[in-house]
Amino acid sequence: MRNICLINKKVAINRWAKRFALQDRIYKENSLKYPLLKARLLGYFAGDGSVCIHKDKKGGVHHTVRFYPDDKSMLNSFLFAFIRIYEKKPYVDLRKNHYCSTVASKPIALDLLQYGSLKTLEWSFPVFCDSKEKKKEWLRAFFDCEAHVNKKSIVIQSVNEKGIEQIRQCLEEFNIVSRTYKYERKQKNWNNNYLLFINRKEDKQRFLKEIGFTHHKKLEKLSAGVT
Asked: Could you read off the pLDDT of 153-209 as tens digits, one per residue?
């Protein structure tokens, strides 16, 4: 009986390995086929996404991928890209003031993590975004998630100093001037905040033209403020 159980276990492991390899190949092929959509996904996950890997009480390992958009247009943009790349439709739950898009998938989780950490202090501009068009997709997605638009500025705030500086440098490639500032928190054990501002009208106009928003409300605010 024990030998039979071991054989069945090996068969199951081999079957899963073949399935994982197939899915991994498909994701890589789709990423090459739709590079701008992959860049968009990476921007969304850097902004408002998460990949959670945890063990249950029985020792089983679970991989959960989530995204938390607060705008319907932004959600639709995300879903379009996700389905093209991963050929799987997430479950979407409407919560009090945002949506929660969820997929339980080890291959998808590991595929996303190979492009870099998504942790608050560790995310960075992905090497995958090696062209201006990819950078534009990543920036639009990230600003959809993280930007605050008011009458004077487009503002991004993060505890990730390196990530904020990378965004500033990337904006320069589109001739968009931005300024970064450090805000020291009152509590010593709190992380410092780093803020990026796009203030000048000509830079906000250039941002609207070159990058823009998918987020409907932010797009409306920016359009109204620069016209």
From this structure: 999 999 888 999 999 999 999 999 999 998 876 666 667 889 999 999 999 999 999
Q: Are 99 and 66 in contact (CB under 8 A)?
A: no
Going by C-alpha positions, the residue among 118, 66, 110, 74 that lies closest to residue 92 is 66
Domain count for the chain: 2
Residue 81 near residue 38 (C-beta atoms within 8 A): yes
What order do you get walking across the sheet with 154-158 strand by strand? 148-149, 154-158, 193-198, 179-183
Q: Are residues 112 and 23 in the same domain?
A: yes
Domain extent at residue 97: 1-120
Rounded Cα distance, 81 and 218, in Å: 20
d(CA 16, CA 42): 26
Return d(Cα 100, Cα 94) in angstroms, integer: 6
